[in-house]
Specification:
The chain has three helices and three strands. It is of the alpha+beta class. The chain has one domain. The protein has a three-stranded mixed β-sheet, covered by helices on one side. The longest helix is centred in the last third of the chain and has 16 residues.
Length: about 80
């Protein structure tokens, strides 16, 4: 039970480089939808990101699919140049 709001507090300079509101969970069993809902409720004007981890597994980052595909399009244009 921690404080409410974002789990990772970024300075304004860091926020320009990392425009995400990050919620972190380290649990063996997790309701991803509920945890992502918490990220959404805390995100304000930033893109919500849920970082999940459990013992023996690598961490995963969950972002909205629309945002993920936007990142893919942006990176594809960089590859073409």
């Amino acid at each position: 039970m921690g404080a409410g709001g974002e789990d990772i507090i970024l300075s304004s300079a860091a926020r320009k480089k990392v425009p995400y509101s990050i919620e972190c969970k380290n649990q063996e069993s997790l309701n991803v939808w509920k945890a992502f809902g918490q990220a959404v409720s805390n995100c304000g004007d930033h893109t919500p990101m849920l970082v999940i981890k459990k013992n023996g597994e690598k961490p995963l980052a969950v972002v909205p699919a629309k945002h993920f595909f936007k990142l893919l399009r942006r990176d594809r244009i960089k590859w073409i140049k």
